[in-house]
Known about the structure:
This protein is α/β, with parallel strands linked by helices. Helix content is 45%, strand content 10%. The protein has two domains: 30-151, Rossmann fold, CATH 3.40.50.300; 157-232, Orthogonal Bundle (Helicase, Ruva Protein, domain 3). Helix 3 runs parallel beside helix 4, helix 6 (157-170) packs parallel to helix 8 (191-208) and helix 8 crosses helix 9. The longest helix has 19 residues, at 214-232. The radius of gyration is 21 Å and the shape is elongated. The two termini are 40 Å apart.
Amino acid sequence: MTDQQPKQLVLDLPHRSALDLEDFLVSQSNQSAIDLIDGVVAWPNGAALVVGPEGAGKSHLANVWRDKTQATRIVAAEASEEAVQVAVGGGRVIVEDLDFGVRDEAALFHLLNIAKQGKALALFTSKLAPGDLSIALPDLRSRVKALPMATIEPPDEALLSAVLVKLFADRQLVVEPGVVGYLIVRMERSMAAANAVVAEIDRLGLAMRRRVSKQLVLAALSAVEQRCGHETD
């Protein structure tokens, strides 16, 4: 017989993240993107672009704009003339993930022409800046480069702290005092890393039936680091 407490079976179930505007944490790193979707910054020719790294909040902001305007969402890699025609019927269109490639470049160029005519508004998102995108159609490439753009910068310490608190709250995790500060100085300064570490903390916490402590944080950081190492091998 052993005194060790058995590990709990962990079911990989999705959790719901808060995606309303009031749940989006604002700092200098993302204020320009907020201003863009709020209409503080003008959209010449009816279109705009939000650029930022993975997990920075591009889809969150796009979701806010979609709820506000009833926009239709298209993924660039699945874009087609038919999808664009359906989307512009509502007058507001979101085209996400330009960095993953564009299925039908002529269709997106058509969308930008419709927006330029004042018949629609189009919001684009991308991890890459316009000059780094792989777009073969010269007219589309130049039009995308001319879009008004807001860049979401890597988070500062204050924003990252607030994001971690929100991520723990989204997962209803009880966190011991001092854990957030302890985590920040040991993790990569990015939203993607914050999401990955908190997800691993949640998984380990359920498996070990433990509160979120500094020891659990170290175990999660080690697991994430090992996983990233295997992915790059």
